[in-house]
Amino acid sequence: MKQNLFSKWNDNKTNQYAILGMSGLGKTFISLQLKKLKTWKHYSVDYEIGKILFTENNRSFLDGFSIDNLSNLSVFLGKPGNKKKGGITFTEYVERQRLHKEAEIVATLNSCKVANNISYENFICDTSGSICEIVDPNNPNDKILNAISKNFLIICLEANKDFYETLIQRFKLSPKPMFYREEFLVELWNDYLQTVNKDETKVDPDDFILYGYKALVARRKKLFEEIGEKWGIRINFNDIKKIKTGSEFVEIVRSKLKEKEVK
Description:
The protein is an alpha/beta fold and 263 residues long. The chain has 11 helices and 5 strands.
C-alpha cells in the first residue's frame, strides 16, 4: 500500500475498515462493538458467501442460516473421508472448495461496491478468515487486495505464538471444515494419506481436518502478517481483548496509523 493512503485514513473524519485475520482473533467481536455505535454499517463476507452459495441445489442450507449463525458454511464444505463417519469423497470436497472460492471472491469485491453506496459515516467489512487463501500479498497488482485497499483501511489481527496453540486446542474439541488454497489442499491430502497409510474411504474425517488445521494455522499466520505489513496495519490480540467499546478500537487504529506513517 502506498504511504499516502495511510495519511488518507488518518485524516478522514469517517472510517472504512476491512478486518482480516483467522477465526478466534476477534473480527466478529470488533464488528459488533462498532455496530453498537449506530453510525457504522456492518458487512459480513461470510454471510454474503452463504447467500451466493445457497441457491438452486443448495437452498436447503439456508435453513437456520443467518448473519448470527454461519455454521451452515462449514456444513456445506464438509470433510473428506469415510462416509460412515460423515465424510465425503475428496473429489466432492474439492468441488465444494472451488464453489466457496468463487463465492468468496464475489462477496469480498461486492463489499467495495456497498461501501461506495451507503449513507453511513463509517463502514466495517468483516472478512472471511480464508481471505488470505484467495490473494497474493506479494503481488502489487493483486486484484482483490488492490480493490479492498482503495476502499478500506486493511487491519490484520494477529496474536502471540502461544495463542495460536490455544486455537489449535480449541479446534480439537470441535473440528470444523475449513477452506484451503487448492494446491496446498491437494499436497496436504496426499501427505496425510501417506502418513496414515490409508485409502481415502477409510480416513477419519475429523482426524484429517485437525491435521489440516495445524498446517493451516502456520500458513495463515505468515500470510496475514505479510498482508498487514504490505497492505495495511497489524493489531495484536492482546490489544483487542482490552477494548470494551467500538470507540476504543478506533483509537487503537489511529494510533497504529500514526506509527505506520513514521516508518
